[in-house]
User: Fold these one by one.
Assistant:
Number 1:
Amino acid sequence: MFRRIENQYYLEEFNLPFEGKLRADNRWVKLAKMIPWDKIEARYANLFPSNRGQVAKPV
């Protein structure tokens, strides 16, 4: 079973210790924006078509 999460976190919102934040020009932030997360999540969800069992972890 798979449930889509509506409140997705973004890397820019990720808080570092001492109230630091990731910069928009950080290579990991840029890479995360290039990845088609919706398409990946849709393919992942197809692996869990049943409404039974433990809920799958979100991508």
Note: The CA atoms of residues 4 and 58 lie 7 Å apart.
Number 2:
Amino acid sequence: MSRIFDWLINSMAIVAGLILLFITFSISYGIGTRALGIQSPVWTVQFNEYSLLWMTFLGTAWVLSRRKHVAIDIVTSRLSLGGKRVAEIVHSVMGAAVCGVLCYYSLLIVLNMYSRGVTDVQAVDVPKSLVLCVIPIGFCCLTIQFLRNLTAEIWKGRKEVAAHE
């Protein structure tokens, strides 16, 4: 199961990277067309907005799994090894709880928008549920990753206790 989840978040991170390339090239294309006096495509701003959302929610679980997320360690750097473990456990529990709640409520909102047929009316009409469906997916993956971090920290603590006995 762990391998499947690792494959999933790695694949999502690759897609997030490809989306970043799309953003880079589409903005460059828009700048180039304006510089040449040609009207920029009307869809670029709209789809770049969507892309920022998708890139963020597709990449967050991968970043968390690598522990490359932004962390303020002013307090934890001064803690003992046991204190750091407790802080990591509290962090993982709180992260899983918050992301789990956000996953649930964002899923309800997306399903509501889908059932009502809400459309984002801009240059290109797009179903709002299609734009926002990545939010519960991202929060679900974050919840799972926080729980994985929690179990890893607990097992690490048990191994340290067993080694000292």
Note: Residues 2-164 form one domain.
